Amino acid sequence: MLFEHLDSMFNTRLSELGFTRYELGKTYLGYPLTFYLPKIMNNGPRLLLTAGFHGEEIAGPISLLTFINTCRKSYFEKFYMSFMPLVNPTGINRKIRNNVNNENPDAGFIRTGDPESFSQSKEGKILSDHMEEMVASSHDGMITLHEDNIRSPYGYTFTWEQSEHPTKFSYDIAETISKFFPLHPDGRLIDVVSVTDMVVNEGIIYNYNDGSFEDYLYQKGCKYCACPDIDQNRSLEYRVSANIEIIKTFLNFYEQI
Ligand SMILES: [Zn+2]
């Protein structure tokens, strides 16, 4: 099964790199929600890298795995990175967006106007039970990798920053996305089923209160959050190359501030 396979590869590689694997809890069918922290503290920015909230968006976990297998070692010395690469095991195994009980693991952390925000998934409850660790590990930033099969051929990113307007952080991420995908046109996010109030500008949906995990961490003080959404209709190899560059852009930002 895909989850077991990826879980074992993450565990092997991250153990070699000096990380400890924690099981934050058990979600449906007894699957663990895994979280990796370095054994040794450093004083670098505390950054949380996550993927696999939506099970069919498989480029995210595979990109994180490829990244940790190929990136320069100095990232692990400069940054206090933690990884949560496979948030939705039952969705990943069934190649479906939500979990096996049809709950969205990336919703319901804050109540918004969205009906989905009024209930929380089993994974969401586990994360909420560990929110102090989540907030601490994402103090300086977080990135969560997503994909979109509706707005093809476009790419765009949600970002959250503790400022009224987007800064270099958001623009850097959008610029990297634009090297692989045309940026979504300015205006409302194209939606085939309903009217959305998400407004895209220069490929960025900024500080959008959607009740997601990333929105919640932003509300709790995370300085910079990015949720890139890339075109899922491109090949897996292409999406992974794009994500690797996006992850590097995210990390390189902290080398410049
Ligand atoms: Zn998603």
List the helices and strands and how they pair.
Layout: H1 2-16, E1 19-26, E2 32-38, E3 46-51, H2 59-70, H3 74-78, E4 80-84, H4 89-94, H5 122-129, H6 131-137, E5 141-148, E6 156-161, H7 168-178, E7 187-188, E8 199-200, E9 204-206, H8 213-219, E10 224-231, H9 236-256
Parallel strand pairs: 3-4, 3-5, 5-10, 6-9
Antiparallel strand pairs: 1-2, 6-10, 7-8
Helix pairs in contact: 1-2, 2-9, 7-9
Keywords:
single chain; 257 residues; alpha/beta; Aminopeptidase; six-stranded mixed beta sheet; two-stranded antiparallel ribbon; 9 helices; 36% helix; globular; binds zinc ion
Can you put this structure into words, describing what you see?
- There is one protein chain.
- By secondary structure, the protein is α/β, with parallel strands linked by helices.
- The protein has one domain: Zn peptidases (Aminopeptidase, 3-Layer(aba) Sandwich).
- The chain contains 9 helices and 10 strands.
- It has helices at residues 2-16, 59-70, 74-78, 89-94, 122-129, 131-137, 168-178, 213-219, 236-256; strands at 19-26, 32-38, 46-51, 80-84, 141-148, 156-161, 187-188, 199-200, 204-206, 224-231.
- The protein has a 6-stranded mixed β-sheet, with helices on both faces. A two-stranded antiparallel ribbon has the order 1-2. A two-stranded antiparallel sheet has the order 7-8.
- The radius of gyration is 17 Å and the shape is globular.
- The structure holds zinc ion.
- Zinc ion is lined by residues 53-54, 57, 146.
